[in-house]
Amino acid sequence: MKKKEIISYLVFGGLTTVINIVVYVILTKLLNVDYRIATTVAWVLAVVFAFITNKLYVFNSKETDKKSLIMEFSSFVFFRIVSYGLDFASMIILVSGLKINDVFAKIAANVVVVIFNYFASKYVIFKTKEQIEQRN
């Protein structure tokens, strides 16, 4: 793994997490939105930010043709839906089941999500042509 890539991922992953948590807190604490709805809205905004930053700045994907962009975005959304499931399930378990403070639960859930998303992005979504050729 490249050190620069990991640092970039952590920076943009951290910013994505900040967006996710700040949107969540604004919705739940200021606007009194249910935590499940707030989790969903926060996730959607974080996913859009993450796709753009991961593609352009972390994994430096050079794919620009329509088919490749559709494949990257589709794969990205698929894996983010899986990680959303991890986030959402974690929130229900931690908040409703274990009665942990929802903001602390959100932070803990996001740690797991960031790790999962890195490996999905690096080895599946934005894999390089060299990685593909090595597997063949």
Please characterize this protein's 3D structure:
- This protein has 136 residues and is mainly alpha-helical.
- It has one domain (3-126).
- Helix content is 85%, strand content 0%.
- It contains 5 helices and no strands.
Walk me through the topology.
Elements: H1 3-30, H2 35-58, H3 66-97, H4 102-125, H5 129-135
Helix pairs in contact: 1-2, 1-4, 2-3, 3-4
Offer a concise description of the structure.
The model has no long low-confidence stretch (mean pLDDT 90). α1 (3-30) runs antiparallel to α4 (102-125), α2 (35-58) runs antiparallel to α3 (66-97) and α3 runs antiparallel to α4 (102-125). The chain has one domain (3-126).
Q: Strand-residue fraction?
A: under 5%
What's the SSE pattern?
A: HHHHH
Write down the overall mean pLDDT.
90
- The portion of residues assigned to helices is over 70%
Number of domains: 1
- First-last Cα distance: 20 Å
Structural class: mainly alpha
- Strand runs, count: 0
Cα gyration radius (Å):
16 Å
Provide key terms for this protein:
single chain, 136 residues, mainly alpha
